[in-house]
Amino acid sequence: MRAIANQKYTLEEYFELEEQSEEKWEFWNGHVWNMSGASFAHEDIVSNTLRSLGNRLPKGCRVSGSNVKVMVPEYPPYRYPDLTVVCGERKQEIMGGLQVLLNPQMIIEVLSPSTEAFDRGAKFTYYKSISSLREYLLIATRFPHVSHFVKQGENEWVNRDANGLDSTITLPTFGVDLELAEIYLEVVFPELPDDLSPDGR
After folding, report:
1. Where are the domains of the chain?
2. Secondary structure (3-state) at 2
3. Structural contact between residues 61 and 53, judged by C-beta atoms closer than 8 angstroms
4. Closest by CA position to 149, among listed 198, 105, 101
5. Are 132 and 104 in contact (CB under 8 A)?
6. What is the architecture of the domain spanning 38-190?
7. How far apart are CA 26 and CA 118, in angstroms?
8. Beta bridge pairs of residue 137
9. Which of these, 33, 78, 149, 199, could form a disulfide with 69 (CB 3.0-4.6 Å)?
10. CA 109 → CA 17, 19, 53, 95, 162, distances in Å?
11. From CA 57, how far away is CA 84, in angstroms rounded?
């Protein structure tokens, strides 16, 4: 992500920037930043997951990439998740002349070193304010690891992790399995320092 330094925007100015730009920008408290600049591993994982989910989701469910704007009530006006899944009708609102999705059932973020702590912490807290959201998936880029959160009841989220290319994630909302071998197909992992390698060696 790349922020515009030393410049504050009104919400109206941000909408104008979004409408006129070919790039994606996010906004918070007057500050804007560009959502471009992902690594090859990040893009390969997004592409693999999009394809794998698209082949498995039941009829009436659709997976979309990072061009879809998602309204987040506690993190307005909207965000650009890496992937979103909607079953049934796509509910939308027009904000600043742009279409914004209101009812994702699942959000997927592919992690990077600069955003991982935020995606696991505050951003997930904000995403929980989306009433339709039932599952949240965090996919690591440094080694095969997926954190999966499923909503249980009003405010409880259950976390299950999957490690290694032979692992599988079950998505109960959609009745499908997602294989890590497909998510990480032909992904080249960076060489990790010893303290970050999966086996600690």
Report:
1. 1-37, 38-190
2. strand
3. no
4. 105
5. yes
6. Alpha-Beta Complex (3.90)
7. 14
8. 108, 148
9. 78
10. 24, 24, 14, 23, 15
11. 12
Confidence (pLDDT) at 9: 92
Q: Tokens for 181?
A: 């071998």
Kindly state the tokens that stand for 115.
Answer: 């955003």
Query: Tokens in use for 60?
Result: 């009436």
The pLDDT averaged over each successive group of 10 residues in the chain (201 residues) is: 70 91 88 83 96 96 96 94 97 94 97 79 92 97 95 92 97 97 93 52 32
Retrieve residue 82's tokens: 């890496």
Give the start-end residues of each E strand in 37-139.
61-64, 70-71, 78-79, 83-87, 92-95, 98-101, 106-110, 135-139
Residue 166 DSSP symbol: T
Residue 65, φ and ψ in degrees, nearest 5 = -85, -165
Phi, psi torsion values for 87, nearest 5 degrees: -110, 135
Distance, CA of 136 to CA of 133 (rounded, Å): 8
